[in-house]
User: What shape does this take?
Amino acid sequence: MATKSMQLQVRVTTKQKVAIRRLARRSGQSVSSYVLSRVLPDERVRFGEILRSLQEESEWRFALAELNDFLAGLAPSEFRDAVGEAEIGSLTLLAANYAAAMVEQATSRLGVDPPDWTSDVEPLDEPHFAVPFRSLRAHLLRSAPVAFKRRNIFVDSSVGDRV
Assistant: This one.
């Protein structure tokens, strides 16, 4: 963890300060640590939150975009702690494969080994194309990143890219 060398002052009401102190005490943290954990959550916690948002199909586009941004922003030194553990049991097989493929693609970019949990996710039996247009299937079959192809998912971009 980086050495803290800066200070930030935030103005709050007396009532807000009492509430923040109470919440910090309940969590077993100092006020500063509590506020920081809420404003800048730990990468592992953030990864778990993103995975949970993949449970809602209506949120998929946003959750996958958020996972993309999250993985693209990780340094190799942060990666293992951030994504080493994953609660994927409540995800559909498709969502679990998307998450695993994105993490595996990020490992390739970062030059690190994928976390063990990714190998526990069985690839899809049937191919999944990210777009419904049959005319694009040949293109997707050629251009999909290897991590996605291994999972039978065919997309036109990878971690760090935007469509």
In short: DSSP finds eight helices and two strands in the chain. Residues 107 and 114 are 6 Å apart (CA to CA). The first strand starts at residue 128 and ends at 129. The mean pLDDT is 89.
